[in-house]
From TrEMBL:
Its EC number is 1.-.-.-. It comes from the Bacteria. It holds the Pfam family Bac_luciferase. InterPro entries: Luciferase-like_dom (IPR011251), Luciferase-like_sf (IPR036661), SsuD_RutA_monooxygenase (IPR050172). Keywords: Flavoprotein, FMN, Monooxygenase, Oxidoreductase. CDD domains: Alkanesulfonate_monoxygenase. One of its GO terms (molecular function) is oxidoreductase activity. It comes from Saccharopolyspora mangrovi. Transmembrane segments: none annotated. This is LLM class flavin-dependent oxidoreductase. It is an enzyme of class 1 (oxidoreductase).
């Protein structure tokens, strides 16, 4: 079976243990970072979306110009660009980079974060808007004739686009853990993205997502599932755990002992996914074969923040445990971003792919 590996690129060298330094957009670093993922054997890289960060459309175009095979997963928040324009923008980038684009749709968990770009809608409305937005985007891609639309959030007449994605449509990834996320993602997603919870809880979420897909008349077995982790590897399990404790100590020193201090929005606005990670941490630091929840607790679960800790062999088997319950995409990013990608390309990805090849 095929499993997709997705990494994550940024325009500067920073992480929870590495304070930003230098320019916000470092072209040389971005180029090296994208090329490192390609050389390591990743299928795609995620380009994240934050209210303070570089524009993802431009980042994808630049990184694609310096790679040949690597795919790009562009995070996109509905509501700031009209869906008719977004459809053309996405299709244009996909054409220019040779069909290597996918889009990761994020409705937005935090009111504070949304308001930084002028969106004052509540969370329920944001999910309704996302539903309508994706309906429109797909219609623009699929229609050869001008289309009209009148909905709750958007109204237009005679919309059309001469430019289409290379393959007619883009793969749509969708994230969230709330009932609204299951409902909208079950309708629209090609791949539904989750953060790294224990196996039992992840299996429960997969079942809920597939149930929603079936309720929308889709084949639930055709829905891809992505899970995100922060692997920490060493030559041995003991060495990996020593490194993990160093990572946690650095995170804790940066947060001054205040869990959640690294959040970009108030802790009261945590999404359901963040709260689920904190609930798992409350049950214990270690779960299953190698899952470690302490970094999630230390950061207030600000983003995908659970780790898999161990030797390459241990972490590879832990990743395969998730594949065994239905996961099709593994999204991994490191605390030492560039160095970790190079390390995983030598020691981790080949182990997973070899085991999958042995099973076929």
């Amino acid at each position: 079976m095929a499993v997709e590996f997705v990494g994550m690129i940024r325009t500067a060298d920073s992480s929870e243990i590495r304070p930003p330094s230098g320019p916000a957009v470092d072209r040389d670093y971005l180029r090296r970072f994208a090329q490192a993922h390609e050389e390591a054997g990743f299928d795609r890289v995620l380009i994240g979306y934050h209210s303070w960060d570089a524009d993802g459309f431009a980042v994808a175009s630049y990184a694609a110009a310096h790679t040949g095979r690597l795919g790009f997963l562009l995070a996109h928040r509905p509501g700031f660009v009209a869906p008719t324009l977004a459809a053309r923008k996405l299709a244009t980038v996909d054409q220019l980079i040779g069909g290597r684009l996918a889009v990761h749709v994020i409705s937005g968990a935090s009111d504070t974060e949304q308001r930084r770009d002028g969106d004052y809608s509540d969370k329920a409305a944001r999910y309704r808007r996302t539903d309508e937005y994706l309906d429109v985007v797909r219609r623009v891609w699929e229609s050869e004739e001008p289309i009209d639309h009148e909905g709750e959030f958007y109204r237009f007449a005679g919309a059309r686009s001469e430019v289409k994605p290379v393959n007619g449509s883009l793969p749509i990834y969708f994230g969230g853990s709330s009932a609204d996320a299951y409902r909208v993602g079950g309708k629209h997603a090609d791949t539904f993205a989750l953060w790294g919870e224990p196996l039992a809880e992840t299996a429960e979420q997969i079942a809920a997502i597939r149930k929603s897909a079936a309720e929308h008349g889709r084949n639930p077995d055709e829905l891809g599932i992505s899970v995100s982790f922060r692997p920490i590897i060493g030559r041995t399990d003991a060495e990996a755990w020593e490194r993990a404790r160093g990572v946690l100590n650095t995170i804790s020193s940066r947060t001054s002992g205040s869990p959640g201090a690294m959040l970009a929005f108030p802790s009261a606005e945590r999404g359901v996914g963040s709260q689920r990670l904190l609930d798992a941490a409350d049950k214990g630091e270690r779960h299953d074969r190698a899952l470690w929840t302490a970094p999630a607790k230390a950061t207030g679960a600000a983003g995908n923040s659970t780790a898999l800790v161990g030797s390459p062999e241990t972490v590879a088997q832990a990743l395969l445990d998730y594949v065994d319950i239905g996961v099709t995409t593994l999204l991994i990013r490191g605390y030492e971003p560039l160095e970790d990608v190079e390390d995983w390309g030598r020691h981790l990805l080949p182990l997973v792919r070899q085991e999958l090849a042995n099973r076929s």
